[in-house]
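Annex B, item 7. Sequence and structure tokens for protein A, then protein B.
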Amino acid sequence: MPLPTDGRFDVILDLAGNRPLSVLREALAPQGTLVLGGGEGGDRFFGGMGRTLRAALWSMFLKQRLAMLVGFVKSEPLRSLADILGQPGVTPAVDRVFPLEEAATAMRTLVSGQVRGKVVLRVAA
């Protein structure tokens, strides 16, 4: 996907959690939104939430919106699911595979309701 003409994005979704806030904010439009969803190494007090907590604090004083995406997962259902998926004969139902450049088309296809299975975005060849 090409960069916007001014080189800044209206929305950045950071799921990896490995870029400094300053770098992400530089790439963000003056009134853009940064959503942090990934953890990082962190420190002994806040663990992987340190950067996210700093972003929430900074957001109160900026025109840019810095938000967090938090999910809480129970481990037992994930272990059960992993056991099921690890059995022979279990394969995902994939309807279509799109190259990453066609993500918008993939979303329109998904929203159309005519999909049977998963829609996959191929990141690399």
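Protein B:
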Amino acid sequence: MDIVKYLEGVKASIGGLETAMLIKFADLLTNAFENDKTVFVVGNGGSAANASHFAQDLSKGVFLNKSTNKRFKALSLTDNNSYITAIANDNGYDKIFSTQLSVFSKPSDLLICISGSGNSSNIIEAVKYAKQNNIFVIGVTGYDGGMLKKEANFSVHVPLDEMCTVESIHSVIFHLIILELRERLTKEPFSGL
């Protein structure tokens, strides 16, 4: 592998992200916060780790140590192993997220689905449930976006055909969004880099 070429490709991919897409993503999350909606985040494998990290950052990282009574209500549905495995065992792995949504979500909540391929059956089942129950879906994808990009209400797309790199850029996007939300909601300007 040519390390220099890889890093140049990553820089180009990050540099090619559409600013309008990222602003809209932050707008949708700001709206969810202001209207007291719950944000659910789902994914598989590396995207499950990103889901868990992003939900934690929304709930804790936006406000850091500020004492505030209001924070993002954000949950990763990838984190309750006993519940996930019970659903998978009894109802099938494709139902692990949609079943949790049926228990925890309300109409007008927000669902963020992270999938490199955009074709994971459990993600698509969650999207179907969400759309039938007035839950807004944000799809975060790679490759050609798959079914998720087509079915989501809004898409954050990284058009690369290499899973590790897609997941890495998703992580960069999520951290950028956290910093943007922190600046918007706490009025603390970003002072890094």
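Comment on protein B: The chain has a mean pLDDT of 95.
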